[in-house]
Amino acid sequence: MRSNFLKATKTNTMKTFNLVILFFATLVMISCEKKSDQVTNPKDYNVFLEMKENKSLDFAKYEIDFWQKKFDAAPNQITYLSQIASNYSKLFEITGNINDLYKTEELLLKSNETFKYSQVGTIRSLGRNYISQHRFKEALVLANKALAIGEGMKETQKLLFDVNMELGNYTEAQKNLNALTDSKDFDYLIRISKWNDHLGDLKTAISFMEKAKEVAVKNDNKALKIWTFSNLGDLNGHAGNIKKSYDYYLKTLAVEPNNSYALKGIAWIAFSHEKNTNEAKRIIDAVSKKHNSPDFYLLKAEIAEYEKNTVDEKKNLSSYFKMLTNNNYGAMYNKYNTSIYADNKSTSSKALEIAKIEVEHRPTPDSYDLLAWAYYNLGDTKKALEIAQKYVENKSFEPELNYHLAMIYKANNLEDKVKPIKKELQSSLYELGPIFEQKINNL
């Protein structure tokens, strides 16, 4: 009897022991899984959030003061205006102050008018300024004006490629790209990278951007290193290489410690990949003190939506629109405004108005998607489908556009067309953000 009891006790003890082992093994597995999801480490980037000095900002201000004094002493030296304009453009990149962008335009207009639009370099500079302002058709006029003069043709072809891509003139853009084809030229490499990204070939886009990075590093060019590192951060994120994306953002910050774009990229990783909303908000709050842009309010509103914090969501959207009211951003935020207005039935008609303007100014698949989405939210699903099939379907690989497409298909009972898009969207959740997870599951 005692022997049987001991056997039973031993058996039960072994079962308990095995259960304990299994329990701890499960905990270790969960811990490892969580650890593998963790990419960011505040120790890597806290120093950049806490920085007080900004050498790039100080240098741009110094250069403006230097060239302004030279111009004041010799007002006939119009070329000085381009130097001043260039540094105001840098100020805009650093601070996000829209007035610096308009000051750049003012100086370049004065310079071009004095030269009677005969200097291709100054014409192209104004064209680039118009691209930043989303005045793409005006930029195209200037690019063609530079082309007609005939000097610096390669540089003008680069500008034409950039403008035509923004306008959705993809056949023309490809011709502009074919006019370059120098595999060692940095500007060609970043543009063929962009072209392949447009075609949906992300792997090739990354490979060309890597080659551009090699050129930047070899020449030890600070501006080009910042450009390639930050773009590789973006491209790798879209490809699902989150750790690589994070490392490239850190590389960007090592070159330019105050780079707001890279810090915003890290905030997105914390939010979208790690679901660490508190850390994402901490980063955004620190960055927005240095770089004042409406984008940050939109990101905070998106985080609040994910947290189901309607008070904070409304508060951030209100701050976003207040900033647009207090500053003239022109058409720069039309895309975001259309999306916000379209999602609310009381403002859907306003979304339609803006979408029509966007299509007129910039007839790209993105603009037509906004138009189709506005009609969808107004309940005109047939009109939405007509526009989407003609101007959006198979013309873009942007996840949000494809989500809209799937919703429009679903509303028109085209379930067979929804399934493949749903599968593709599930692999694009990082790029779309956590608030889309349930939306995609409901497709």
UniProtKB/TrEMBL annotation:
Keywords: TPR repeat. Coiled coil: none annotated. The keyword Zinc does not apply. InterPro entries: TPR-like_helical_dom_sf, TPR_rpt. The keyword Methyltransferase does not apply. SMART domains: TPR. Pfam families: TPR_8 (PF13181). It comes from the Bacteria. PROSITE patterns: PROKAR_LIPOPROTEIN, TPR. TPR repeats lie at residues 226-259. This is Tetratricopeptide repeat-containing protein. It comes from Flavobacterium swingsii.
